[in-house]
Amino acid sequence: MSSQWQSLVSQKIYLATQLARSARSQVSTTEREACIQGAIELSLRARQLLLALVARYHQDKHAMPASLAELSTLIADTPDAEILGELSRTPDSWWHHLDQLELSQSQPQKQQKNVSEDNVIAVSAAPGPDRSADGLLDTLAAMKTFVNDLGERHAEW
User: Which of 23, 46, 80, 94 is 20 to 30 A from 40 via CA?
Assistant: First the structure.
Protein backbone atom coordinates (compact mmCIF):
# COMPACT_ATOMS: atom_id res chain seq x y z
CA MET A 1 0.00 0.00 0.00
CA SER A 2 2.81 2.44 0.82
CA SER A 3 4.40 1.74 -2.54
CA GLN A 4 1.26 3.08 -4.25
CA TRP A 5 1.56 6.29 -2.23
CA GLN A 6 5.25 6.57 -3.06
CA SER A 7 4.40 6.11 -6.74
CA LEU A 8 1.78 8.86 -6.49
CA VAL A 9 4.26 11.27 -4.88
CA SER A 10 6.89 10.37 -7.48
CA GLN A 11 4.37 10.90 -10.28
CA LYS A 12 3.56 14.43 -9.06
CA ILE A 13 7.26 15.25 -8.79
CA TYR A 14 7.88 13.88 -12.29
CA LEU A 15 5.03 15.91 -13.81
CA ALA A 16 6.18 19.06 -12.00
CA THR A 17 9.68 18.48 -13.36
CA GLN A 18 8.32 18.16 -16.89
CA LEU A 19 6.42 21.42 -16.55
CA ALA A 20 9.46 23.23 -15.14
CA ARG A 21 11.58 21.95 -18.04
CA SER A 22 8.89 23.00 -20.47
CA ALA A 23 8.90 26.51 -18.99
CA ARG A 24 12.50 26.95 -20.18
CA SER A 25 11.48 26.61 -23.82
CA GLN A 26 8.35 28.75 -23.77
CA VAL A 27 8.63 31.93 -25.80
CA SER A 28 5.41 33.42 -24.49
CA THR A 29 5.63 34.98 -21.03
CA THR A 30 2.12 33.76 -20.28
CA GLU A 31 2.89 30.18 -21.25
CA ARG A 32 6.15 30.24 -19.27
CA GLU A 33 4.28 31.54 -16.20
CA ALA A 34 1.58 28.89 -16.64
CA CYS A 35 4.24 26.17 -16.69
CA ILE A 36 5.98 27.58 -13.60
CA GLN A 37 2.75 27.97 -11.64
CA GLY A 38 1.62 24.49 -12.67
CA ALA A 39 4.96 23.03 -11.60
CA ILE A 40 4.75 24.82 -8.26
CA GLU A 41 1.21 23.57 -7.63
CA LEU A 42 2.18 19.98 -8.48
CA SER A 43 5.21 20.30 -6.20
CA LEU A 44 3.02 21.48 -3.36
CA ARG A 45 0.60 18.61 -3.99
CA ALA A 46 3.52 16.16 -3.96
CA ARG A 47 4.66 17.56 -0.62
CA GLN A 48 1.15 17.20 0.80
CA LEU A 49 0.98 13.60 -0.41
CA LEU A 50 4.43 13.00 1.08
CA LEU A 51 2.94 13.69 4.51
CA ALA A 52 0.34 10.98 3.91
CA LEU A 53 3.07 8.63 2.66
CA VAL A 54 5.11 9.10 5.83
CA ALA A 55 2.02 8.50 7.98
CA ARG A 56 1.44 5.24 6.13
CA TYR A 57 5.04 4.17 6.61
CA HIS A 58 4.29 4.58 10.31
CA GLN A 59 1.23 2.32 10.07
CA ASP A 60 -1.44 5.03 10.09
CA LYS A 61 -3.38 3.83 7.04
CA HIS A 62 -6.05 6.54 7.03
CA ALA A 63 -4.25 9.70 8.11
CA MET A 64 -4.16 12.64 5.73
CA PRO A 65 -2.12 15.17 7.72
CA ALA A 66 -2.67 18.71 6.50
CA SER A 67 0.64 20.00 7.79
CA LEU A 68 4.02 18.97 9.05
CA ALA A 69 2.90 19.85 12.58
CA GLU A 70 -0.04 17.47 12.26
CA LEU A 71 2.20 14.71 10.93
CA SER A 72 4.70 15.31 13.73
CA THR A 73 1.92 14.78 16.24
CA LEU A 74 1.07 11.44 14.61
CA ILE A 75 4.67 10.18 14.41
CA ALA A 76 6.34 12.04 17.29
CA ASP A 77 9.83 10.94 18.33
CA THR A 78 10.61 9.17 15.06
CA PRO A 79 13.58 9.77 12.75
CA ASP A 80 11.20 10.84 9.97
CA ALA A 81 9.62 13.52 12.16
CA GLU A 82 13.08 14.79 13.11
CA ILE A 83 14.33 14.85 9.52
CA LEU A 84 11.26 16.66 8.22
CA GLY A 85 11.36 19.10 11.13
CA GLU A 86 14.99 19.87 10.39
CA LEU A 87 14.19 20.38 6.71
CA SER A 88 11.44 22.85 7.58
CA ARG A 89 13.84 24.85 9.77
CA THR A 90 16.71 24.91 7.25
CA PRO A 91 16.50 28.09 5.14
CA ASP A 92 18.04 26.60 1.98
CA SER A 93 16.16 23.27 2.01
CA TRP A 94 13.68 22.11 -0.58
CA TRP A 95 10.95 22.11 2.08
CA HIS A 96 11.62 25.75 2.96
CA HIS A 97 11.70 26.72 -0.73
CA LEU A 98 8.28 25.12 -1.21
CA ASP A 99 6.99 27.04 1.85
CA GLN A 100 8.12 30.27 0.22
CA LEU A 101 6.62 29.31 -3.14
CA GLU A 102 3.33 28.38 -1.49
CA LEU A 103 3.17 31.77 0.20
CA SER A 104 3.95 33.60 -3.04
CA GLN A 105 1.33 31.56 -4.96
CA SER A 106 -1.32 32.38 -2.34
CA GLN A 107 -0.97 36.16 -2.39
CA PRO A 108 -1.43 38.79 -5.07
CA GLN A 109 1.72 40.30 -6.48
CA LYS A 110 2.78 43.51 -4.82
CA GLN A 111 2.22 46.62 -6.85
CA GLN A 112 5.40 48.12 -8.22
CA LYS A 113 5.84 51.85 -8.05
CA ASN A 114 5.87 53.70 -11.33
CA VAL A 115 9.36 54.71 -12.31
CA SER A 116 10.14 58.11 -13.70
CA GLU A 117 13.40 59.94 -14.18
CA ASP A 118 12.59 62.12 -11.17
CA ASN A 119 12.21 59.31 -8.64
CA VAL A 120 14.83 56.77 -9.73
CA ILE A 121 17.42 56.26 -7.01
CA ALA A 122 18.45 52.66 -7.31
CA VAL A 123 17.34 49.46 -8.95
CA SER A 124 16.68 46.44 -6.79
CA ALA A 125 15.44 42.96 -7.48
CA ALA A 126 11.98 42.06 -6.26
CA PRO A 127 12.14 40.07 -3.02
CA GLY A 128 10.67 36.63 -2.88
CA PRO A 129 11.43 33.00 -3.59
CA ASP A 130 13.32 31.80 -6.63
CA ARG A 131 10.56 31.09 -9.13
CA SER A 132 12.91 30.26 -11.98
CA ALA A 133 12.64 26.95 -13.78
CA ASP A 134 16.19 26.07 -12.72
CA GLY A 135 15.47 26.88 -9.06
CA LEU A 136 12.34 24.79 -9.17
CA LEU A 137 14.16 21.92 -10.87
CA ASP A 138 16.79 21.94 -8.11
CA THR A 139 14.05 21.77 -5.47
CA LEU A 140 12.27 18.96 -7.29
CA ALA A 141 15.51 16.98 -7.62
CA ALA A 142 16.16 17.32 -3.88
CA MET A 143 12.58 16.32 -3.14
CA LYS A 144 12.84 13.26 -5.40
CA THR A 145 16.07 12.24 -3.67
CA PHE A 146 14.36 12.58 -0.29
CA VAL A 147 11.39 10.44 -1.39
CA ASN A 148 13.72 7.76 -2.78
CA ASP A 149 15.81 7.74 0.40
CA LEU A 150 12.65 7.57 2.51
CA GLY A 151 11.42 4.59 0.51
CA GLU A 152 14.76 2.81 0.84
CA ARG A 153 14.89 3.45 4.59
CA HIS A 154 11.42 2.02 5.11
CA ALA A 155 12.02 -0.92 2.77
CA GLU A 156 14.83 -2.01 5.12
CA TRP A 157 12.47 -2.20 8.11
Answer: 80
